[in-house]
């Protein structure tokens, strides 16, 4: 046989062929490939491996952290300080720059290693049939057309078409995010409405066999698999800068322009108006440039982010990348999956329905706390209602799942098997039935497994008592519609009755009501086999057993919303943050949950399935994204597409996820949030933040912290820039008076403020907790600037001019009290030093009042805890200590042009912060009128 492998084999198009025709379509045979065919296909398709993405050299990554715009400004600023005869100050600036560069490098070096994590999820070996012999080979040696054997517990090595299956169930949660096992079959599937992952006759690399066994033909390997496509999306995604990084770059440019412009103006003025020598004028101008460079910006940003990270960790959110914290604050849309994030990922029976009545089941999750209550709210008695007892007992007997309680290794309940069946066990326990005793009462003798064609499962049990005069019963659970058609009788608390069309209609109507509310519904029925003379095992076939059954009731279940989720979503709505559910679950279920927890508020919400999304143009998608929408049954690349469309609409997007399928969207998002409990390593590596409790509410808490970071950076800038005005105004007096007014503030005194007294209080503003109303504001727009008109007016004109007036007042009062007039102003000597010391002191004391004002944007400082920010308190003590050292330690006098002060000097300085605070309190009060 010639070997011309159909290229379509690598495009997942084997699902339409009948099982016997798949061999020919894949150009293979039931005895497997021959060695020459294997070698030829390995040459054509390569090895079954995930390719590594090209990475930037570590050295280059390291260097880039020291050549950003802000870093360059700090290098220059340090050089300026050294040129200004201040070696120590210059070295401090450079040290700050080096620390920030190393810190940033460490953060980036720990960034996503998603491909390596993906590779760990693929098995090392596979069982194949080649040349008629079963072999165990390295999984990377698989080729399209290989015949592969899989069984319970196996992790699948490649995508493939099933040609034979025995009770096969596959856990596809790594690709779909949904934990319920999927039943697989070898039957052909020609449904054009299905996406690749929905075909029941296909299995995929990276998924796990939950039960059963099968033979498959490999249809795709390596990067051509569904798993590989996720790896490709993840690898080839450029790491974009965060909104904060972009804004800091823009801020650096603004500051550079301002600083250089001021420096040039003062240089020209010094040479033209005062006729200073070129060298002296140059140093003077350089000093002004340094004054306008916020040396503490990077440390403040880093500290603010780091403190927010610590607070978030206490709220169960671990941040991998510091800049992600502020990105959360700018988030305008959160794309959240459903299972485990918005819901508990714990199927829970909510309702029981029998022909004679309906019951509510209380309690949530896999805990046995709860009970069964009738329509009147009273606890139902199983003793008085035999049919209800049988419904609950039989539901457990027809289950293969186990629920393990929390232990030292697992903090929560662990489910072995299908979660849908696990909740049936919990139902029995809530009814007071001991599972072990129930199994002893009715041991199982045979099982007819579930399959997706008949949509039901049957067990045959030998009961230690008579049910309808029989000790041998079959118990069947399955889809209500199909089950109802097979039931000729029904049982209620009054006994056994013949099924009628009216009763069937009532059953289906009840099922529809449950389904409309997003509940998953099972019907349960039984058959007394001895009564029907079906006692031989040879008679126990699907055709014989699953007919003429007795309908017991409906069991409605759901994965309930997590506690606190609705409140968190309400908080998001108040903060003008949209929530969009993007799930692999069915549309009706998704919409019901979305309504229940408040994501969807109106009646016009649209549910878009993955198949519908696939047919949409980008423009159509953007249009539907403007309204209330829920995405259901979506594939990984579709979730990625939704995120991309939202970003193109100008949204800042946060995405939650836990599976391999979520990795591309997590990495594409502005902020990727992975689940710490249920999340795969791939999801965690691709994300920027990990929730240790998998709780949506933790994301909202993190958003609040992110907003606080942005506000704190603005507070820092306001604090730093407002001192620039009183630093520049004295120099302006000197220049505009053509030297008549001596320089009230020297270059070294300016540096003493910027690199000494201001640093720690400024850092303290970076760790302020969120203000009470921070989540009442809409998300900031990406076009919003840190250094905006409002901040500039407040810092330079309002705060800055007040400080300038007090600083220049201190300077002139010193002369006036000494001479009695201002006609002659000494430009050297003790009096001049006292005057410049007072100018410096006034700025420092004004900044003490200013840092208290800026701690809150609009509230009175009377509402603040004066000692609530320990770093600011430490900073104020250090600030005063530095000034006292400068004033009273003679060694600093010549270097900083300082003189000792008298009592009246200190009285004036002590009054300065109270003037600043008083004027700001008046402004805040007027703003609230």
In short:
With 929 residues, the chain is α+β, with helices and mostly antiparallel strands. It folds into four domains: 7-52 and 117-235, Calcium-transporting ATPase, cytoplasmic transduction domain A, CATH 2.70.150; 317-343 and 562-694, HAD superfamily/HAD-like (Rossmann fold), CATH 3.40.50; 348-558, Calcium-transporting ATPase, cytoplasmic domain N, CATH 3.40.1110.10; 705-928, Up-down Bundle (Calcium-transporting ATPase, transmembrane domain). Helices cover 47% and strands 17% of the residues.
Task: Describe the secondary structure blueprint for this structure.
Elements: H1 19-25, H2 35-45, H3 58-64, H4 69-83, H5 87-109, H6 114-120, E1 125-130, E2 133-138, E3 147-151, E4 159-171, H7 173-176, E5 182-183, E6 202-203, E7 208-220, H8 226-235, H9 243-272, H10 278-292, H11 297-314, E8 317-319, H12 323-330, E9 333-336, E10 348-354, E11 357-361, E12 372-374, H13 386-397, E13 402-404, E14 414-416, H14 419-430, H15 435-441, E15 444-451, E16 456-467, E17 470-478, H16 480-486, E18 487-492, E19 495-498, H17 501-516, E20 520-528, H18 542-545, E21 549-558, H19 565-574, E22 578-582, H20 587-596, E23 606-609, H21 610-615, H22 618-624, E24 629-632, H23 636-648, E25 653-657, H24 663-668, E26 671-675, H25 681-686, E27 689-691, H26 696-722, H27 724-736, H28 747-757, H29 759-765, H30 789-819, H31 829-854, H32 870-888, H33 893-896, H34 903-928
Parallel strand pairs: 9-22, 9-25, 18-21, 22-24, 23-24, 25-26, 26-27
Antiparallel strand pairs: 1-2, 1-3, 3-7, 4-5, 4-6, 4-7, 8-27, 10-11, 10-21, 11-12, 13-14, 15-16, 16-17, 17-20, 18-19, 20-21
């Amino acid at each position: 046989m010639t070997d011309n492998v159909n290229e379509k084999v690598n495009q997942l198009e084997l699902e339409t062929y009948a099982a016997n025709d798949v061999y020919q379509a894949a150009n293979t045979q039931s005895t497997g490939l021959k060695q020459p065919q294997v070698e030829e296909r390995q040459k054509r398709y390569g090895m079954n491996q995930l390719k590594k993405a090209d990475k930037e050299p570590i050295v280059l990554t390291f260097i880039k952290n020291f050549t950003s715009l802000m870093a360059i400004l700090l290098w220059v600023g340090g050089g300026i300080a050294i040129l200004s005869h201040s070696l120590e100050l210059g070295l401090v600036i450079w040290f700050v720059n080096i620390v920030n560069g190393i810190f940033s490098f460490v953060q980036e070096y720990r960034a996503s290693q998603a491909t390596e994590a993906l590779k760990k999820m693929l098995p090392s070996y596979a069982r194949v049939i080649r040349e008629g012999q079963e072999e165990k080979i390295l999984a990377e040696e698989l080729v399209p057309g290989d015949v592969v054997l899989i069984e319970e517990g196996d992790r699948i090595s490649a995508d493939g078409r099933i040609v034979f299956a025995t009770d096969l169930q596959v856990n596809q949660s790594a690709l779909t995010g949904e934990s319920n096992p999927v039943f697989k079959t070898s039957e052909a599937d020609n449904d054009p409405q299905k996406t690749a992952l929905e075909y029941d006759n296909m299995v995929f690399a990276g998924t796990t066999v939950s039960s059963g066994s099968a033979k498959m033909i490999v249809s795709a390997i390596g990067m051509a698999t569904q798993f590989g496509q996720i790896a490709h999306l993840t690898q080839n995604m450029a790491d974009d800068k965060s909104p904060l990084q972009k804004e800091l770059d823009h801020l650096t440019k603004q500051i550079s322009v301002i600083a250089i412009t001021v420096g040039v103006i003062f240089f020209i003025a010094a040479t033209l108006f005062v006729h200073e020598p070129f060298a002296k004028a140059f140093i003077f101008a350089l000093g002004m440039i340094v004054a306008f460079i916020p040396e503490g910006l990077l440390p403040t940003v880093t500290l603010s982010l780091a403190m927010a990270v610590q607070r978030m960790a206490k709220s169960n959110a671990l941040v991998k990348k510091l800049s992600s914290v502020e990105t959360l604050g700018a988030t305008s849309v959160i794309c959240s999956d459903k299972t485990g994030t918005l819901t508990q990922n714990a199927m829970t029976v909510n309702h029981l329905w029998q022909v004679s009545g309906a019951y509510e089941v209380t309690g949530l999750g896999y805990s046995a706390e709860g009970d069964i209550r009738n329509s009147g709210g009273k606890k139902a008695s199983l003793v008085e209602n035999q049919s209800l007892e049988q419904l609950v007992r039989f539901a457990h007997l027809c289950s293969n799942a186990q629920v393990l309680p929390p232990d030292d290794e697992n903090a929560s309940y662990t489910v072995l098997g299908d979660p849908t069946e696990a909740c049936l066990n919990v139902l029995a326990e809530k009814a007071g039935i001991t599972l072990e005793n129930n199994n002893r009462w009715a041991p199982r003798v045979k099982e007819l497994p579930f399959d997706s064609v008949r949509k039901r499962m049957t067990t045959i049990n030998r009961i230690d008592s008579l049910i309808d005069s029989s000790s041998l019963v079959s118990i069947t659970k399955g889809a209500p519609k199909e089950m109802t058609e097979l039931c000729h009788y029904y049982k209620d608390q009054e006994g056994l009755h013949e099924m009628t069309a009216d009763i069937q209609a009532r059953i289906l109507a009840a099922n529809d009501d449950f389904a409309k509310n997003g509940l998953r519904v099972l019907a349960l029925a039984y058959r007394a086999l001895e009564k029907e003379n079906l006692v031989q095992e040879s008679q126990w076939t699907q055709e014989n057993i699953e007919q003429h059954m007795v309908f017991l009731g409906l069991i409605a279940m759901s994965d309930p919303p997590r506690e606190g989720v609705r409140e968190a979503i309400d908080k998001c709505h108040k903060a003008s943050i949209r929530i969009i559910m993007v799930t692999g679950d069915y549309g009706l279920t998704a919409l019901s949950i979305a309504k229940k927890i408040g994501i969807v508020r109106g009646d016009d919400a649209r549910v878009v399935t993955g198949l519908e999304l696939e047919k949409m143009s980008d423009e159509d998608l953007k249009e539907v994204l403007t309204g209330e929408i829920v995405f259901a049954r979506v594939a990984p690349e579709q979730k990625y597409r939704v995120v991309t469309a939202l970003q193109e609409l100008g949204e800042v997007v946060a995405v939650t996820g836990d599976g391999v399928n979520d990795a591309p969207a997590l990495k594409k998002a502005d902020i990727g949030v992975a689940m710490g409990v249920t999340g795969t390593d791939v999801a965690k590596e691709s994300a920027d933040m990990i929730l240790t409790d998998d709780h949506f509410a933790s994301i909202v808490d993190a958003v609040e912290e992110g907003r606080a970071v942005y506000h704190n950076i603005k507070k820092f800038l306001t604090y730093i820039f407002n001192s620039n005005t009183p630093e520049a105004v004295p120099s302006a007096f000197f220049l505009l008076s053509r030297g008549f007014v001596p320089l009230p503030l020297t270059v070294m005194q300016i540096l003493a403020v910027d690199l000494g007294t201001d640093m720690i209080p400024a850092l303290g503003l970076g760790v302020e907790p969120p203000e009470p109303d921070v989540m009442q504001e809409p998300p900031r727009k990406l076009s919003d600037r840190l250094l905006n008109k409002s901040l500039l007016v407040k810092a330079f004109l309002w705060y800055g001019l007040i400080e300038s007036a007090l600083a220049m007042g201190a300077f002139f009062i010193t002369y006036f009290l000494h001479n009695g007039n201002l006609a002659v102003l000494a430009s050297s000597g003790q009096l001049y030093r006292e005057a410049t010391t007072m100018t410096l002191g006034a700025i420092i004391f004004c900044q003490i009042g200013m840092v208290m004002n800026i701690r809150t944007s609009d509230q009175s400082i009377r509402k603040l805890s004066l000692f609530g920010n320990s770093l600011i308190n430490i900073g104020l003590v250090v600030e005063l200590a530095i000034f006292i050292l400068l004033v009273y330690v003679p060694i600093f006098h010549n270097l900083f042009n300082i003189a000792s002060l008298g009592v009246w000097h200190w009285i004036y300085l002590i009054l300065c912060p109270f003037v600043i605070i008083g004027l700001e309190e008046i402004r805040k009060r007027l703003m609230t009128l």
